[in-house]
Design brief:
Number of domains: 2
Shape: globular
Number of strands: 6
Strand content: 5-15%
Structural class: mainly alpha
Order of helices and strands: EEEHHEEHHHHHHHEHHH
Largest sheet: 3 strands, antiparallel
Distance between the termini: 16 Å
Length: about 350
C-alpha cells in the first residue's frame, strides 16, 4: 500500500514505545511500523507482528469503519469537483434522453389481452424522437464508464496528497477512453455471459436449478475478482493488464471484499432511490407529474406515466441523473480506496505524486 512518506516531524506514538505496529499517524486505515525511533514505510501487514501493544490485527484493506468514513469524507469534501463531473457525463445525456422519451412515447396506448396478458401497442409518439432516445442509450453507457474513471482519478489524487481540478480528471478519462470503455464492456460481458450460461443450462435441464446457491456464490466471487478492472485501466500504466491485475489483487482478500463491496453497492444504489423520493413530491407540487396507473387495468396510456408537461418530466429526470451520479461517486471512490490499500498498480507519473512529502 502506498501513501505519503512520513518524516521525523510526524509525532511518534506517545511515550516512545518499543518497535511494533501502530495505527497509521497519517490517519489512513491500517497500521504502520514504528521502529522504536521513527515511522517507516511499512504499512498494514496482513498479520501484524506480536507485541504490537494496543494495535489490533488488520488486513491489507483495513477496517470497515475507517474505509467507509473516508469514502463519505471524500465524497463530501470533493463535492465541488464531483458535481461538474456528474454534469458533464450524466446530466448532459440524461436531460436530452428525457425529452426524447417524452416526445417519442406520447399518446401511446397499451391494451392488454385479459386472457394472455399480451399487450397490443397503439403507437402515437414521434418516431424520430424515439429513435433518438434509443441512440442515446449506448452513449449514456459509455459516459457512465468515463464518469466512474474521473471519480477514480479524483479519489486517487486526493489520497495521494495532490488533488487535481475536476477538468484534469475529465480530460485524463477522455485520453484513456478507449482503454476504459474496452475493459468496462469486457467486464460487463463476462459477468452477464455467466448469468446467461446458467439460464440456458436451466432451460435445457430444469434439475440444474438446484445449483442456484452455488451459482450465486460463483457470480458474487466473479463480480468481486473483476471489481478493479476500471481502476487499473484508469490509474495503471499502459503495460498493466486490468483483468489479470484485478484478479490478483482481490485474490487474498476476496471474502472481506465481498462484504465491503456489497455494502458499498447498497449505499450507492440508495442514492438513486433517495433522488427519486425527493424528485417525485417536487414534480407533484409544481404540477404535471405522472398519474398512478391501476395494475389491474386492461388499458394503460403512457401519457399518464409521462405527465402532461415535458419540462416537469425533465426536472424529474434531472433528479434521477443526480442520484445516478451520486451512485457513481460513492461506488468509484470506495472501490478506489480499497484498491489503494491493496497497493494496486499505478502509472509511474501518478505514483510519484504519492511520494511527495
Amino acid at each position: 500500500m502506498t501513501g505519503r512518506l512520513l518524516t521525523m516531524s510526524d509525532p511518534p506514538p506517545p511515550s516512545q514505545p518499543p518497535p511494533g505496529w501502530y495505527p497509521d499517524p497519517a490517519g489512513r486505515p491500517g497500521y504502520r511500523w514504528w521502529d522504536g525511533s521513527a515511522w517507516t514505510e511499512s504499512v498494514s501487514p496482513a498479520t501484524p507482528a506480536p507485541g504490537a501493544g494496543s494495535a489490533k490485527p488488520v488486513t491489507a484493506i483495513g477496517a470497515v469503519g475507517p474505509w467507509f468514513s473516508e469514502t463519505f469524507r471524500l465524497a463530501i469534501g470533493r463535492a465541488g469537483h464531483f458535481l461538474p463531473i456528474i454534469v458533464v457525463f450524466v446530466v448532459s445525456v440524461g436531460l436530452p434522453t428525457s425529452f426524447a422519451i417524452w416526445y417519442g412515447l406520447r399518446d401511446t396506448v397499451l391494451t392488454f389481452d385479459p386472457e394472455t396478458g399480451v399487450p397490443d401497442v397503439a403507437y402515437g409518439g414521434s418516431r424520430p424522437w424515439l429513435l433518438a432516445a434509443v441512440a442515446l442509450v449506448p452513449i449514456s453507457v459509455v459516459l457512465s464508464f468515463l464518469a466512474k474513471a474521473s471519480v477514480i482519478r479524483q479519489t486517487w489524487a486526493a489520497q495521494a496528497g495532490a488533488p487535481e481540478p475536476w477538468s484534469a480528471s475529465v480530460m485524463a478519462s477522455f485520453r484513456l477512453a478507449r482503454r476504459i470503455v474496452a475493459v468496462s464492456v469486457g467486464r460487463t460481458a463476462i459477468y452477464w455471459s455467466l448469468n446467461l450460461a446458467f439460464l440456458v443450462a436451466v432451460l435445457a435441464n430444469a434439475a440444474l436449478v438446484l445449483l442456484f446457491p452455488f451459482v450465486v456464490v460463483m457470480l458474487l466471487v466473479a463480480w468481486v475478482r473483476l471489481s478493479f478492472v476500471c481502476t487499473v485501466a484508469t490509474l495503471g500504466a499502459a503495460s498493466d493488464r486490468p483483468f489479470a491485475a484485478s484478479w490478483r489483487l482481490s485474490g487474498l482478500e476476496t471474502g472481506r471484499l465481498v462484504g465491503r463491496l456489497l455494502l458499498l453497492a447498497f449505499v450507492a444504489a440508495s442514492m438513486i432511490l433517495l433522488a427519486g423520493l425527493i424528485g417525485t413530491p417536487f414534480t407533484a407540487i409544481v404540477g404535471g407529474g405522472s398519474t398512478p396507473v391501476d395494475p389491474a387495468a386492461d388499458t394503460v396510456e403512457l401519457n399518464d406515466l409521462l405527465g402532461p408537461n415535458v419540462a416537469v418530466f425533465a426536472i424529474g429526470s434531472l433528479f434521477n441523473a443526480i442520484g445516478l451520479g451520486a451512485n457513481y461517486v460513492l461506488a468509484a471512490a470506495g472501490t478506489t480506496l480499497l484498491y489503494r490499500n491493496l497497493d494496486g498498480p499505478v502509472a509511474p507519473g501518478l505514483k510519484a505524486l504519492s511520494a511527495t512529502p
